[in-house]
Amino acid sequence: MNKKNDIIGKEFKCLNHGFVRLVDFMGDDVAIVQAARTSYGQGTKTNSEDRSLIRYLMRQKHTSPFEMVEFKFHIKLPIFIARQWIRHRTANVNEYSGRYSEMRDEFYVPEAEVIKMQSSDNKQGRADEVLAKNYTNKIIKNFTTSQENSYSEYKKVVDEGLAREIARINLPLSIYTEWYWKIDLHNLFHFLKLRMDKHSQYEIRVYANIIADILKECVPLAFEAFEDYILNSFSLSKAEQIAISKIISTVDIEKLDDNFLEKCGLGKREINEFKEKMNLLCI
Predict the structure, then answer these.
(1) Is 83 one of the annotated active-site residues of the chain?
(2) Of 89, 99, 195, 205, which residue is the catalytic one?
(3) Domains of the chain, first to last
(4) d(CA 242, CA 234)
(5) Tens of pLDDT along 6-30?
(6) What pTM was estimated for this model as a whole?
């Protein structure tokens, strides 16, 4: 299957009016290993060797080969999410202009199940408790009425001839915008690490998860390495390392069974690296 032809141009729905569409991409897993071979020489030939090399690059944080792969997306999203998204300054962006064109009558209204109260222990997030249905229905009705009134006022003054750049000022952040967003794979992985995190805002996580699914198709080996070494990994502080070293101080590292470690998913080189880390913890 030609995954590039299958996925390019396909529209993946997000929220109520949004979408993610892959416009084009340059490079794939092969491009990553080709770039690495410039540094390391012609050493890998098979798919398994390519996988091992990509995992080594990700594990050792050799990022430049991943920068050889680029993705260009067409994305439709609420402005309040766009303002979070634009904080990732490592991409090229061209956004829909509300000065040149009329804004569309499309707003984000959250589903009842994602409307929550402010979290008591997270100043920038929502709590987990499910709210009463009559309360969430009231919130949704208020949002919808406010959006309709705001757009009606906007459209009225635009039709009267008021400059679009002035007319748009009172439109809410829930209105949708669109942009073309181009980014290399290394920086895209960094975006996903932050925006797929459970502490990230729900609405931007929806988009991040869709992009992740696209990458799984386009660069499966690189995405697998990203999941293992970046997305699902965590770092330990010095104090945490000391605590763990006391817990495992009775373990004989040299007697760790390689077959057991292989069943855990570690390759031969990873087993040696793991034992080195364990030895460091036990010092």
Answers:
(1) no
(2) 195
(3) 3-108+174-231 (3.30.1360.170), 238-282 (no CATH)
(4) 16
(5) 899 999 999 999 999 999 999 999 9
(6) 0.87
